[in-house]
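Workshop exercise sheet. Pairs work together: one partner reads the sequence aloud, the other fills in the structure field after running the prediction. Swap roles for the next sheet.
Pair: D.N. / O.F.
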Amino acid sequence: MNLKLGIVMFFLAFLVMPFVAAQTFDISMVEVDGVVAGERGTTEENTVSVERGETAAVEIWFSVSNATTVSNATTVDDVRVKSWIDGYEHGEIEDRTEIFSMEPGVSYRKVLRLDIPEDIELDQEYTLNIEIADSDGEERNRYNLLINEKRHYLNIRDVIFSPGSLEVEAGKMLFASVRLENLGSRKEEDIKVTMKVPELGLSTSTYIDELTNEEDADSDEETSASSDELVLRIPENADGTYDLTIEVEYNRGNTVEKKEYSLTVQGRAIAPEEKAELTISVDKTSQSVKQGEGIVYQISFSNLGKESRVFTLDVSGEEAWARSRVEPQLLTVRADGTGDIFVFLSAEEDAALGSHLFTVAVMSGSQLIEEFNLRADVTKGEDSSAVPTTGGDFSGFRKGLEVGFIVLLIILVILGIILAIRKMGREESEEGSEGGKTYY
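Structure field:
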């Protein structure tokens, strides 16, 4: 009896259990770079064109066409959209979304991006595949694809650096050879190839006479070529990582291709004898300054070496009570030469009274050459209502100008007196000579 009851209960449960239909996905439209490749309700197949070397945007509009139960609607989980191109012999051209969920009755749009290889063949047909799938099934559509070549396009196929890596010592040479191939539909002439490191002010260029395209090439013409060797001398004071750019300019300068690299320069340590050839001094290690006024520190350089040196200053520790300015920001001192950099400090009008310390670091590239710990004693400033100021930017120089004007006035008075005495002396001598004349 219990067995019969169990069988009956099983069949009753099966009858009342909601029937789940296998869902399908409805792809309503597909566009490639804004051009319709296929649309629901039409039997006509469009052939869509893309350019090699570009990234094609594939937009898919879709929904769930059957994801309901007898009693209620069901969310579809673990959905993924995938797009790929068949026929490329050197690898896969594909993109896919992350897994997501779909609600019935809702339309969805996903954008996938396909990087069209620069060397993909032009003389064959390609198929664009669109697939929407979950764990229970999939929907796949196929579209015709045509690969076009650009009118003007030179591909930077390879760059060979010497030494073998992009790591070089300061003061050494960096060599590079650039391999180009013409993947466009036109012959290119007078191709300029440049290697440059903008942060170090370095640049060098060479030319490739011409590169023909693949279709028009004959036995005497080349579709690819390597440039002459490009050479850069890395400065002695360089140290750190810099952006290096390979730039190819063609089509009468209207088209430019670029590739960016990271160049690591190992700074050259300063030998003791080399440091002995360099003298760096500061005129004052401590000065007084009133609130709202300014002072100047002079850093002097003497280079007794055989090569020019480049220096910069880094001021720190003054931010809370003063503003700083360095002039010049970069100083080149020639061999057996001297130079000065000035550090201007302007105390804030509300700067705390008392002694303040700050640091001036002397740098050559990213190398610390010397460091000075300086002091400024801030005293109470004048009443701004009684003495007009110019915003606290070195207004103390006004007194110097006044003193200079007074000194100049005194000098002019003295010169006037001397000129007057000289004139009187000349008149007296002339009168004496006239009185001593003899007449016959």
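Discussion prompt: DSSP finds three helices and 28 strands in the chain. What would you look at next?
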